[in-house]
Amino acid sequence: MDLNYDKIIMDVNKMELLIEKLNNQMEGITYYNNKITFVKNALPGEIIISDNIKNYNKYNVATIKEITKKSPLRIKNKCPYFNECGGCSLQHVDYKNSLNLKYENFLNLLKINKIKCENLEIIKNKNSFGYRNKIELKIKNFQIGFYKNRSHELIEIDKCLIAKKSINDCLVQIKSLNIKNGDIEIRSNYNDEILLIINTLDKIEININNLKKHLKLVGVILNDKIYYGDNFFYEMLNNLIFKVSYKSFFQINNYTNELMQKIVLNNISKNAKVLDLYCGVGTFTLNTALKAKSVYGVELSVSSIENALKNKKINKINNVEFFQGDTSKIVNKIGNDFDTIIIDPPRSGLNKKTREYLLENNFKKIICISCNPITLVRDLNEFKNKYNIEKIYLVDSFSYTFHNECICILNLKEKLC
Ligand SMILES: C[S@@+](CC[C@H](N)C(=O)[O-])C[C@H]1O[C@@H](n2cnc3c(N)ncnc32)[C@H](O)[C@@H]1O
Q1: Which residue has its alpha carbon closest to ligand 1 atom 2?
Q2: Which one of 42, 65, 337, 411 has the largest count of C-beta atoms within 10 Å of its C-beta?
């Protein structure tokens, strides 16, 4: 957004601050005492007054007391906790504008890092509210909620608008469990079944029959032990079934997860030999096996790999092998007879050994999936001399928050083929 500074008249006596742009966490950037200052829920071009500016080593954090010049993009946020909660960061603009801001922000990140990609497409979420299949809550002194932005102070909530209805129904029931302190995770699958994971030092009695009256309860896990039912449920993506244990990773948005599976499948050639690193319970592994000649999946988490092996059986897919272990060790043993590599690392990005393995071998195609644009561009920078970035899909799996999923399609440069 171009700011017309000539027309902006600020009253310096009122300590007005001009928001210049957004940072990667979608916080407004301004300058106070010549120091970069972040302002949550502020938009580019706005002028705000703050009476609360916290001074950190390298930056300040300011909160909004009053907005003296509002952005035309600003709308009233739906969620009553938005101004304090650390979860969402874009509920003060409508969905279409939130996508535009994310798109611009990502383009800018590519530009700063000198990463060329002519083809960047943003993929929308079908339901921008009510999409999350998992939430993690804190309980402090009988209050249940999330942490406030950049703090460990709790904000008590009755409902989370970006979570699925089945999760909010569960939240209502948890309030009656009378837990004083602890953590709770609620997971809900494609069929709205619930897995409830509780960690607390309090002695608690859970009335399962009462919970079952209100919820499709599949299991309760208390302090890592099954208290009721099962410690897993089944998920479904594009007609494949996945067993998912309470400890195993599964993407939090089933709608965009299905789209991501389709994008990856479209970029796999028939008869490809695929290696899926960081494969979780085998979602990309088993989906791509429908088209590829063979797929090898590698995953560190024992529960995920147990699920993946089971998922191979349930879906009767035979051209797949799974290996449990750290990618940095497995890549040394697995050989290099692959033409397509899928990588979907945790937020920290690729580890050194895996990066070296990918750079040493001339794999024809690398499909990089990432939920952290910062480590993604660091990794893309390593590949950009050998690979053309044919396309990047920015997938809005985490609507109204600053997070995204990215799928980058990298093709080996012709002279290296
Ligand atoms: C972002 S998740 C992706 C999982 C899967 N591709 C999916 O979409 O469901 C990253 C996965 O990497 C696994 N992981 C983390 N560090 C690892 C490592 N060093 N080696 C192998 N897997 C690792 C995690 O357990 C997690 O399942």
Answers
A1: 346
A2: 42
Residue at 343 is within a domain: yes
- Residue 257 in contact with ligand 1 by CB distance below 6 A: no
Per residue in 241-291, pLDDT tens?
999 999 999 999 999 999 999 999 999 999 999 999 999 999 999 999 999
Same domain, 114 and 178: no
Any atom of ligand 1 within 6 Å of the Cβ of 301? yes
Number of folded domains that form the chain: 3
The Å distance, Cα 261 to ligand 1 centre, comes to 16
- CATH code: domain of residue 117: 3.40.50.150
Name the active-site residue from 160, 170, 279, 371.
Answer: 371
Do the bridges between strand 405-412 and strand 154-156 make them parallel or antiparallel, or are there none, so unpaired? unpaired
Residue among 192, 134, 196 at smallest CA distance from 163? 134
Select from 49, 69, 89 the last residue of a domain: 69
Residues 278 and 228 in one domain: no
Does residue 240 fall inside a structural domain? no
pLDDT tens-digit map of 366-401: 999 999 999 999 999 999 999 999 999 999 999 999
- Domain encompassing residue 177: 134-232
Give dist(CA 176, CA 148) in Å, integer: 23
